[in-house]
Prior knowledge:
Layout: E1 5-21, E2 24-37, E3 43-48, H1 61-76, H2 87-90, H3 98-116, H4 120-124, E4 130-132, E5 134-137, H5 143-156, E6 160-164, H6 171-180, E7 186-189, H7 199-205, E8 213-214, H8 223-231, E9 236-238, H9 245-254, E10 259-262, H10 270-283, E11 287-289, H11 296-306, E12 329-330, E13 340-342, E14 352-353, H12 355-361, E15 362-369
Parallel strand pairs: 5-6, 6-7, 7-8, 8-9, 9-10, 10-11
Antiparallel strand pairs: 1-2, 1-15, 2-3, 4-13, 12-14
Helix pairs in contact: 1-3, 9-10
The protein binds 2-succinylbenzoate and magnesium ion (MG).
2-succinylbenzoate binds near residues 189, 290 and 316.
Amino acid sequence: MLLRTIDIREIRLRLRFPFVTSLGRTEERRIILVRVEDENGVEGWGECTTDENPFYSEEWVDGSWLILQDYLLPLALGKTIEHPSEVAGLFAGVRGHRMAKAAVESACWHLEAERRGVPLWQLLGGRRETIAAGVSIGLQPGVDELLVKIENEVGAGYRRVKIKIKPGSDRELIERVRAHFPDLSLMVDANSAYTLADMPLFEELDQFGLMMIEQPLAYDDLFDHATLQRGITTPVCLDESIVKPADAVHAIALSSCRIINVKLGRVGGYTSALQIERICREAGVPVWCGGMLESGVGRAHNIALSTLEGFSLPGDVSASARYWEEDIIDPPVTVSGEGLISVPTGSGLGVAVDRDRIEHLTARLESGICR
Ligand code: OSB
Ligand code: MG
């Protein structure tokens, strides 16, 4: 396929509810979408999952815009590739910026699926017809508000609930949630808010039967997580620490975790995500698909990724309506009363990208065309 046209655009989408973590608060998403078109006018879409600020990772929206515009688009435009797995190679000279790279790479995978007229998830080697949905609930003003949120999500059918914790909002919070929901599949995410000095806290958390503790320690650490995992029975799950296949190899060798959260953007795209899935599957380490408050485009990609065999735990992939009044795909993502998402059977993403609505939401657009 010839990568004849590549557009990047930024859209603004207001969240229905602010999302608060130990890293900060998000009320409106600024989302960069990538559209790649081939020699026949067939198109593929990708979403850059960078946050507005460089707090979750080093990447942020304005930085991603520049790296896409000044480096990645010029490297990809006008190139002919046989397969989307070659896209990562085009970008090999640029260090880091994995979410920006993944936006283009995932658009090329979508494009390849459309060219072949097959569902993207089948092109990836996925197997599931339905995926189990979980929710990630941000920090709330108080415990009572959190309990109401959980009640609503459980009532809607979600199969597991993740809550955010931070120092000062941890042990007691978890104890109260557990008391209200003794049988709930419950996990917590700290977004790197703790250190090994908090070992006594983590030892205490073992009594609450959590499915896992996600990214308790530093975002770039594997070693201290291994020390922590040795000292507690609750599985540690790594999110921020895993940005490439070698990290998964090292984390497994060190026993830094027993579960890995795979995010398409954070690991640099599908080629890397597929490798991590295989490494983990062969080592018996379950993985699940994380989320970055994606619009429908990124959400549809997350559903495709979640169909792979190794994704054996419910992810942070939930219904469009949890985030947006109106999504940019048609139909939006919905979740059944049993907490399942049906994987679309149509070609490509299996949903229509709402071009009119996207045009309406676009704050800036940069178009590269090669003739
Ligand atoms: O740590 O998993 C995280 C959102 C933004 C940045 C980091 C994280 C999250 C979430 C929300 O937990 C997942 C979602 O609902 O998309
Ligand atoms: Mg996380």
